Model the fold of this input.
Amino acid sequence: MSASFKRGINSFKEQMDAPVAAFFSSCVRCGLCSQACLFYTETGDPKYTPINKLEPMRRVWQQEYSFWGKLASALGISKPVTDAELTEWETLVYDSCTLCGRCSMVCPVGNDIAYMIRKMREGMAASGHAPEGLIGATQRAITIGSPMGVKLPALQAQIRHVEKDLGCTVPVDVQGVDYMLLLSSMEIMNFPEFIGAITRIFRHAGISWTISSQAFEATNSGIQIGVSEIAAELVERVVRAATELKVKYVISPECGHAYMAIRWEGPNLIGRPYDFKVVHILELLDELRTSGRLQTSGKETQRLTYHDPCQIARRGGVVQQPRNLLREVAADFVEMPEAGIMNWCCGAGGGVSANERADEIRLKAFIRKKKQLDEINPDALVSACSNCRIQLEDGLEENEMDIPVLSLTEIIADHLVEKEQKEGQQP
Ligand code: SF4
Ligand code: SF4
Done:
């Protein structure tokens, strides 16, 4: 038995907490979760069913912690999990699960299958069975501070462009402001317009904010690959920066899993509560709308629909806010079937997009989104996650669908009431 395989099996054993034991004891194999998983529905291959993805971990639990499993092991009836099986399961656990949590929503006994897959990834990573793409992204996150290798000078260059375009300063390392904004590498490199959009909105609403040069990265590769120690260290960097800058709020940007990582998992990972609050950018924009600090004018006339990023809507509860905001700026907003908390995943979350080996299966999974779009024929698709945007663009291109993908924050910025208009308004 190799040292890494032994580490992996030990890690599986360490993951066995009450929810894991409850899951394996209570699963009645009804198969409902299969119908909720886009990797299964779009391939029809039983190996992609959620519970099959957990099979090696289930066997470790059975053999180690159940009476009949222990007995079967002792009698040699039940075979131990092998390294070859973990190699086989690597693609199931990393390439064909986006941790979207849709399966968890339908389980009649309340099993959180996405939580289980996260647990399973801990054992897989410990045994050396994580995909190269994710290992590389995680190493870059630790050494450089960003999974895409984005360094501070690259962010500074994007900031200079924004400042030149808008004629104002983008605040960096300003102490004592209310908000600290995080950005995902994808926003910095693929959608830098987002930084300009935020700057315009915050200038309009009079928000005091800053970006930290020490911790601007929002994404957390440690969670995606399944190494809690790394995930905790990445959260600590944000906490340190927010504490040094003495901010009241940290803003999670248009990135699904970044929100889940910093908002929901972060305090548990570091073992203490934050001294600040975390808000998703859509939550903040909707609050500003409600309080009258965000005023828009004019509406998009094209038929718009909204793709709910799984970690923001289903796992994060930010469902109504994007709709409130869209109704402010869209004359023809149409919901896709199964919109909201049961919306289908784009097919590339949970580290799948960082794993080149998964390209074929993620594009197959996108067919589920295509089917949703085919039912409503939108002119454009709006979302609030850069990772979703890239996958949606890829999938649409692959299927020769001419539908632009837009950022909700950027649309809002394009409809801001100009300063002169605002000043001319009656109080
Ligand atoms: S979390 Fe999503 S992708 Fe993963 S098994 Fe469940 S439904 Fe499938
Ligand atoms: S839906 Fe729940 S009970 Fe049914 S097979 Fe899936 S995990 Fe088991």
User: Anything to note?
Assistant: The mean pLDDT is 94.
